[in-house]
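Write out the bound-state structure for FE3-S4 cluster.
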Amino acid sequence: MTFVVTDICIKCKYMDCVEVCPVDCFHEGENMLVIDPEECIDCTLCVPECPIDAIFDEEDLPDELVKFTAINAEYAPQWPVIDHKGTPPPDASEWEDVQDKYPEHFDTSPAARGNDE
Ligand code: SF4
Ligand code: F3S
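---
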């Protein structure tokens, strides 16, 4: 089992989640994070940290978000680990209520370093 970041995170990327993960299994893309399913120990700590409820137990994913299990598994090995909170995008709050941000707003690029430094 694993926990999964969904497209609710896209362009919001608040990063509170990474501060509590005991195994540093979050990976950072340019505009969202994903969880490495090989590393996640299902501790549940990250779920209440996300202010917009973007993280789900894979077994509780609504049907329309099931695809994010594979997306997390695909991008985690390609993106750098993030283990401390950086600065969220300046317009993050404007994206909180936008529906179906994937695939239109999904950026496949790894995070450009510097955001969290
Ligand atoms: Fe990390 Fe626990 Fe969240 Fe998994 S459930 S990503 S181990 S904080
Ligand atoms: Fe994304 Fe929520 Fe973490 S917006 S970066 S899953 S705190």
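---
The pocket of iron/sulfur cluster (ligand 1) is lined by residues 3, 20-21, 23, 25, 35, 40-46 (CB under 6 Å).
The mean pLDDT is 96.
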